[in-house]
């Protein structure tokens, strides 16, 4: 049986004993591989060639059109995959999932299609959600084309406010495009443009599409430069000519129109929030070094680095990753990010799937945008914003880097260089060790095994926030899923009333309090698909001492029970379950596997949270038995973030990481890391003198020098090939 350790929690998934199969060859792992650039292009070309769909290019043209929004792998059904992997059955047909926006018809909607067979598609069929519901057009994710229209509407609406904005901030909203300012050029402030960040959900009820926009000065780290103006734009209609500004909030007051705000300024009845011009260098929102450490120790030289003195100890063949006893297939899906399949240890399947499902952040605030913000990042293309990883910073220079191709709101496959990295990481702590003292100033033996883990990593930069997604594999059969939160905080204009909902982190900046919740799917198949769920309840009992009559012994036995123990770090909290269910309703949800419950969220949840297409609560309503069944554990980890001045310029990763472990629990006869040839054993040969030692090791006596890596390089582009 494996133990599912949820940070500090104890929970067990019991299983029937069965036999596993051998490590699959790379060819079988490829059934889970992401679509290649050629496959993505083939799907797009095929769908655009179908006259009945009437598809137009995504970019350019009107919003009221039919366009292809997303193409990604449609994974095979589990029963077909297992028949192929375990029983020598036929290879599942390779198919794509395609999301089409039908905006150019009387009743606009969003429809998903299965397209196959790949690599040469010849058919498509609609896909349905549980319950057969259709996707309303207002639930669709935002596109670059819609943002272009939002910019146009906002530019026209801001024209009456240019004088106010110039006088108060030194910046204004330009009608054309603005180049990002570069430090050292001119005054470093560029064209003194204003930009905006939009928040969601986009309204207060199903069917709405009204977005609050936070205006900010377009400087480096513009997320930290709100100017005190927030604008509500109604953009529900497919025709942008019918869009309009419905309300404004400026420095604590609401206005019904830009003209009303401008008139208040002209009459002198407006309390103006005047902001000094930002400096051209060492801007507080930039990464430029400033200040000094008092010890005087140097930071002008490189720090410690990961080294592979005898080469890599893992193997990557296509999307098949192998390390020690571990093997798995992985993909980076555009909709939600990393997904592991067929996770095995020494040939025994541990899990059929472990994947990221959703990341949400619920905010509080005084301004309308702040109080409205409840981000659900799958709706922002969380899996498609996997920008280039920097060697030596985002991943060790020794890492293996893998490119990704996404077709998400684009007119062809877009290549994201170095989107994934794989590396072996020294943990800095022994996997296990013991010093066996003789209690007379010497020892009987010392033994230790160095700690290492293989890391599979990607990042998602969802506008201001950067999530670092890790899956770690340890030699003792333990796997860990972990996410670090970094990047810029979501901040609003400081007002004294706002301090109920956050902290003043700079002169005109409020860091809004928020809770991060990250949802995972863990489809455990431990020695087969017939698994059961148990909890272990730990309690004290007071019993008679059998060897000392009249004495009592306080013991702590463990026995199965209905309660699930959860211990939280004082500054971090773990939650299980997912919106729209209140996030703390379920510490851990375990359901039976169903093909129509493959995800706990969707790309539509952000803009339709009131009547979500995927309602996680419905997974639990059937009250099915979970004894000796194919089970899925749904796990959410998270933490409360109270922003503080040290979050400037960016939230740091220490203290802002959460995750969970999968640990073997009486599954092996002993710690499987005994198969490692990395331990060192030291025994004295002449006690009590201890002048001669026997040192046993199964690796070279010296690891050898670490060669210097090549100079740092970075490209940072992602574009169609």
Per CATH, which architecture of the largest domain?
Distorted Sandwich
Describe the oligomeric state of these chains in a short phrase. single chain
Overall mean pLDDT stands at 89
Could you give a short account of the major beta sheet?
A: 16 strands, mixed
Strand residue percentage: 35-45%
Termini separation = 47 Å
Top CATH class of the largest domain: Mainly Beta
| Rg measurement, Å | 28 Å
At the fold tier of CATH, the topology name of the largest domain is Beta-galactosidase, Chain A, domain 5
> Runs with pLDDT <50, length 5+?
1-22, 560-583
In DSSP terms, counting alpha (H) and pi (I) runs of 4 or more, how many helices? 8
Shape: globular
Let me know the number of strands: 41
Q: What's the domain count?
A: 3
SS-based class: mainly beta
The fourth-level CATH homologous superfamily of the largest domain is Copper amine oxidase, catalytic domain
Helix percent band: under 10%
Topology:
Layout: E1 2-5, E2 12-15, H1 26-29, H2 37-48, E3 55-56, E4 66-74, H3 78-87, E5 95-102, E6 109-116, E7 123-126, E8 135-136, H4 144-158, H5 162-169, E9 194-198, E10 210-217, E11 226-234, E12 244-250, E13 253-255, H6 258-267, E14 314-317, E15 320-323, E16 326-333, E17 337-345, E18 348-363, H7 368-372, E19 374-376, E20 400-408, E21 414-426, E22 432-437, E23 443-449, E24 452-462, E25 465-473, E26 479-487, E27 491-493, E28 502-506, E29 509-512, E30 514-524, E31 531-534, E32 536-538, E33 541-544, E34 552-555, E35 558-560, E36 589-592, H8 618-621, E37 631-641, E38 657-664, E39 680-684, E40 693-697, E41 718-720
Parallel strand pairs: 3-4
Antiparallel strand pairs: 1-2, 1-38, 2-31, 4-5, 4-20, 5-6, 6-7, 6-8, 9-10, 10-11, 11-12, 12-13, 14-15, 15-16, 16-17, 17-18, 18-19, 18-30, 20-21, 21-24, 21-41, 22-23, 23-39, 24-25, 25-26, 26-38, 27-29, 28-29, 30-37, 32-35, 33-34, 36-37, 39-40
